[in-house]
Specification:
4 copies of one chain form a homotetramer. Chain A is α/β, with parallel strands linked by helices. Chain A has 8 helices and 6 strands. Chain A is 42% helix and 18% strand. The longest helix of chain A has 19 residues, at 3-21. The model of chain A has no long low-confidence stretch (mean pLDDT 95). Chains C and D meet through α1, α2, α3, β2 and α4 of C and α1, α2, α3, β2 and α4 of D.
Chain lengths: 202, 202, 202, 202
């Protein structure tokens, strides 16, 4: 059975549960609009789906997913910046209270970046290397797990380079969180920005 | 109770289920790496989480989420293109079999775009308007629901402008799907590329 | 991994979800007591768990489970009548609005009964045969699937032999439902008491 | 919306998930028959559904549910003994490896029993009092929570009065567990038969 057929069948279960069996939550979200408290920046990796990892319900998480869960630096140059646009919309329009950047171990994008630093480049890739290169200064010749933590540290710094983020944080309206998921151990860590260390929270 | 605390508690349930109660699936994904069959491009909207909508399991969906579920046109210019990087990685490295672009009704990004076409612009937004402007040619002064279908049609055309997508599709290795979710009705439609019409599938 | 260890791990996920992540429902049930609308009489069979079959939440179903989902006839003789005690408590104390008796295909208890009618008895069983014998008059030498429908018809008749059930039903406070689950097809049928036929409802 | 309508809608989600999206588990159970490792004797209380409490999947738990999760003493007298019949079938035919008797705090049946010991009887109840009276010798004028633990101790003793249970346990084929669920705290305890004390396991 192909996964796409499983997904269509899964949609039937979604509708049965959220529209027919317990329609209150979705009806309220359709009528009243979304009011998520959290913007989550996560990786596209199929193994770290935020709604599964956190048992979320519809309406709880406004989610950006890109390769390696990267936040680029503030650069209002008129180009297409998908992650920055979502960030802006979440903070300025939806007025989320928390931004979580969720990185993880065993990240393919980070491994590609580490390989590139060793000149083990993939010469015919047009997009993944420019994309990961935004983290080139943050990562050295190191273990991928450590590199993924370094990219998370840089993403948090980049996040704070957006004036609307830092201002909201300074005023106490917004909290910034760096979370790192150890996929092998099933453990969740948070970045302590004061000393740059990761502390296990679960 | 704050949503972020709910998410930490939800992570405990995830670990209890996927690492302790039924560890087979995740163990296999950690050992063997991810092998998703599907790349899904979805919207960041908190109400249309793909894993919830399709009752997905870890490992099934490689997911990009950005505002309005947009696919930009092919532009290998060395800039940061998050969605294109994910697309490249999914098709060329993970060798997915299906790409689904999932748009939906009541999309805030599309509403902003429609407002902008009427000169009801939000003057101090630096990112969301450049981002949505990639769809400016696809959308007119129209109902937001219709506009979200027009952006989906354009995303599918953009998707096919990537040589590695179109080549894989031509060779029969890759299928491209445009899906549209009617949030009010709980109905799922697919785009028929031949005539541009949407056909209800669920 | 033994199932009992899976169950302990599963309990951890239950607590994480229902006590930590979304405690409102259980807190209300603990404070306010249970107020189920439905008494469900179901089979002990591990494949037909009512909460799984109907995606129930805590507090929704008051459940009796015995071999073959049988309701015995009214017999207030002072003996231990577990099913009758639950029935009495549900109707008179909890004041449920609906009683569902849920039988199913491929029922081991019914197969034992059919075998016994053919003198293929299991001579050293002390309890299962007396228990199933309450249905001896309802079942002949027939297909087990048909026999399970015959036992359901008899259970519904037995249910109506309880004065407090029939009185509440006559007054319109209580509805009696016979449901039959076709395990192979995944289909749900209801008994039409007027003509004794089963009508597919799902 | 009535709960019975929610249950029919819930059945649609069950079928979509277990028959259409991920049919492997149920197909195997239909083809190969049930092979549960565990017999669980639980209470009918709507708040302590075993499949929800332990996040069970179809096929994992063979379940008896009666008021107060009682196991009667061994009495092969030819009467209808629903719980004993299920016990016999689970041990002798299904050959379960574990029997769990799961009692809980805030049990209405136990409260009725305690009330009866204080002569606060409910004079017109024909079944619940005979049923609970099987525990009369085990319970005194005490707190209901303590009384529910006393009934569990007695159920375990009764369980061991069945020769086929005790013999299988003596031979090491079968394990007997008394579990007690503290509904207010969300905690799970097990009975240590050696000293009669309850030890928290979760």
């Amino acid at each position: 059975m192909r996964t796409i057929d499983r997904m269509v069948a899964g949609f039937r279960s979604f509708r049965a549960i959220y529209y027919e069996q317990r329609p209150e939550r979705v009806a309220s979200l359709v009528e009243g609009g979304q009011k998520p408290e959290i913007l989550l920046v996560a990786c596209s990796d199929s193994r770290v789906d935020p709604a599964i990892l956190m048992n979320a319900e519809p309406g709880e998480l406004f989610v950006v997913r890109n390769v390696a869960a990267l936040v680029p630096p503030y650069a209002p140059d008129g180009h297409y910046h998908g992650t920055s646009a979502a960030l802006e919309y979440a903070v300025r329009d939806l007025k989320v209270q928390d931004i979580i950047v969720l990185a993880h171990s065993s990240c393919g994008g980070v491994s590609a970046l580490v390989a590139a630093t060793k000149h083990e480049t993939m010469p015919d890739r047009e997009f993944i290397q420019p994309w990961m290169s935004m983290m080139a200064g943050a990562v050295g010749d190191e273990e991928p797990a450590k590199a993924s933590q370094d990219t998370l540290r840089q993403s948090i710094r980049n996040l704070r380079s957006f004036p609307f983020v830092q201002n909201a944080a300074d005023l106490g309206y917004l909290n910034v969180h760096g979370w790192w998921f150890d996929m092998k151990e099933g453990a969740l860590y948070r970045l302590n920005e004061d000393d740059g260390q990761f502390v296990r929270i679960e």
